[in-house]
Amino acid sequence: MKFIPNTLLARFLILIATVLIIAQVVSIRIFDYFERGPRAEAVAQEIETIVNFTRVSLISSREDKRLELLSELSTKGDIRIYPAYYFEDIEPLAPDPFLQVIVSKLKERLGENTIVVTNHYGIPGLWVSFAIDQDEFWVVIPTPGDRPFPWHWIGWGIIVAGLSIIGAYATATRINKPLNLLINATEQLKKGMFPEKLPLDSVTEFQVMSQTFNEMAEGLNKVEQERKLLLAGISHDVRTPLTRLRIAIEMLPEKIATKLKKSMEEDIGEIDSILNQFMDYVRGFDQESKSLTNLNDFFSHLKEQHKMLNHNIVFVSNIKIPIFYDIRPVSFRRLFDNLINNAFSYSNGEVLITLKKNKDSISISILDDGPGIPPEEIKRLLKPFERMDEARGNSEGCGLGLAIAERITQSHDGKLTISNRAKKGLEVKIILPLVSES
């Protein structure tokens, strides 16, 4: 549901608050239910005492003095006594739970024949019947009201809930701290960086989690170092015979093997290029320090250098003022050289580079008018050893070009996307978070 927050802290606080509110309501209802019986018992006992004293008083008086006694008793306090008559209309009792319990207790004490009504003849009060010989009477007492709503309980409940939420917040924050450290460390691992060891928490579960992650990161680092060493060794060992082959080719007579020599030189160059790509991918780009660079100047200079290679680049920018960005100059240049050279492999004449400043990012697009890529092939192209050339009808290369480009982009905290243009060609877009401008 969209109304449920995503963070553990917010969900934990909502859960605690909900549980506390339910607990408070249930507690009030339970207390009210079990407290109603003793209160009804006390009220019934008081009414029984009034009825019995009134009955005894009337029995003890002479019959010719009873009406005078009734009149005198009715003028004292809030108690009223009236004679009852047969065939009176008896109104049904109001559906009040507390009053129902009082009536039940009164019938237990005064007998099942006792009649109890309220507001009889429009006179407010609780009317209780009793008999003396063949005569029936009513004792009218003020209607016992239910206990007022305990607003002070709500106040205390709010205080308890507030303290509990503060405690829940402190607990959730305590849980979030090691989790945030773990999330940050995994983000660094995802970018190809190896984070510092997580501190071991005093809580056993978090301690085991941090220790396990540290061991995993250390194992990954060891594997990465071994992989770099292995590929560096392979690169070194392969380049030695390649160098010998290149020297041997140079020594071949021109008349004997002109075509063969050219073909062999091209093969050696391609092998050397593949080895360089391997080393670039393994070595990474996080070691190079960053430098504040004017992006407009960078791409203008890049355009001029490619012009010497007969590359016709059209550069379009919506940035009218100098905009500076922290880049790793060598790898950043390698990133766009790679993408531009690849675009010219399929372009029919020119490549378009656009530089746009958005609200919170800078987007750089390299657009060609080549054949594009089947949509189902786009997702796999950023994986190592997946060839974009093959997807566009060429089987050369080792498939590391775009993987290297993506790693360089990630080292600049950016994102690389690939999409087909609306009419024809391919667009490779680099999105960098906007940091500063002047």
Blueprint (SSEs and pairs):
Elements: H1 8-60, H2 66-74, E1 80-84, H3 97-110, E2 116-118, E3 126-132, E4 135-141, H4 151-190, H5 204-251, H6 258-283, E5 291-294, H7 295-307, E6 312-317, E7 324-327, H8 329-344, E8 350-357, E9 361-367, H9 375-378, H10 388-391, H11 401-411, E10 415-420, E11 426-433
Parallel strand pairs: 6-8
Antiparallel strand pairs: 1-4, 2-3, 3-4, 5-7, 8-9, 9-11, 10-11
Verbal overview:
- This protein has 438 residues and is α+β, with helices and mostly antiparallel strands.
- The strands form three sheets. It has a five-stranded mixed sheet. Strands 1-4-3-2 form a four-stranded antiparallel sheet. A two-stranded antiparallel sheet has the order 5-7.
- The model is unreliable at 391-398 (pLDDT under 50).
- It has eleven helices and eleven strands.
In short:
By secondary structure, this protein is an alpha+beta fold. Helix content is 54%, strand content 15%.
Distance between the termini: 43 Å
Helix/strand/pairing category: alpha+beta
Biggest sheet details: 5 strands, mixed
The number of helices is: 11
Shape label: rod-shaped
User: How many β-strand stretches?
Assistant: 11
* Gyration radius over CA: 46 Å
Proportion of beta-strand residues = 5-15%
Helical content class: 40-55%
Physical arrangement of strands within the biggest beta sheet:
6-8-9-11-10
Mean pLDDT: 76
- Outline the low-pLDDT stretches: 391-398
Helix-strand topology string: HHEHEEEHHHEHEEHEEHHHEE
Subcellular location: Cell inner membrane
Main location: membrane
Pfam family, one: HATPase_c
Catalytic activity: ATP + protein L-histidine = ADP + protein N-phospho-L-histidine
